[in-house]
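Fold it.
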Amino acid sequence: MEDELLRSASGANIGLGLIVLISLAVPIFASGFQTLEVAYALIFAIAILGLNVLTGFSGQISLGHGAFLAIGAFTTAIGVKTLHLPYLATIPLAAMICAALGWIIGMATGRLEGIYLGLATFALGVATPDLLKKQTDLTGGVKGLSLPPVTSPFSAVTDDQYFYLLCLVIAAVMFWLAANVLGDRTGRAWRAVRDGELAAAAFGVNVGYYKTLAFALSAALAGIAGSLYGLATAFVSTDAFPVQLSIALLVGAVVGGIGTIGGALIGGLLTEFLPIYAQQLLLPISKDLANAAPGAVQGMLLLIVLGVARGGVAGLISDGYRRVLQARRPEVAAEVTTESAITPSPV
């Protein structure tokens, strides 16, 4: 058992090391446009991480997560353009505002579950862009708000490389914080609530508090992602946050691996790159097929995951690694048996 745990830990460390090496190699070997694409994937990964906390670990479905991205993006846009704040200061500000709104919404929907909670969050995703569009003095209405591009303070680093490294650092901190929270008492309470609210309450878990806390943390992560998204595009408009974005984030969470931290990173990569490559593959065949490719491919992947791999891509990777360990275990056991047979008894 100890050997199995050591092998599992070493495999996790190897995987983490590969992710770090690839992440650091991106700005060196990729072009500026490709580096910015990976930065978008990291932004979506942060948003999906928040959705994973809410849905995968605490068992609350959300079909309107794009609303918090919109609020985070407009918080940064208003902070930079109207209040003349440094753009770095608007990122935690967006997190705090979205966390407060998430807490309020979590309290309001605390008694809802299942399809009713899904419909309530769906209404949030539909209504938020329209509400923001009406506040023309703050949000610019249909014209939106333009932002100055993020520039690198270092001469050796280009603007795209600097923004990518900024997203990488923020994403690493968010994933580290999420891993620590989910491995602590709070994470155990969320999993207990997800598996059964009555049983969790019977064991002394404050179900209402932890459900609201999950909503607040999830909204804060989405606010950070929205803030970075606004800085990446240098233009914030309500049209950039339709309800389809919320659905795409949920599909990314499920396909990547719901209820796993690594699945959020995989989901972010799929959310960014899958529509792009699907359109490129189908564009020579038909322009109409290329336009319909992103939604169609996402739907097909969702059906495949629900039917074949409930754990998503992260679950498939974990199962594959576990099977490799199980295949090697008989060989190790045979070697140990041979050595014990050869070694003479000291008695």
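Residues 1-6 have pLDDT under 50 and may be disordered.
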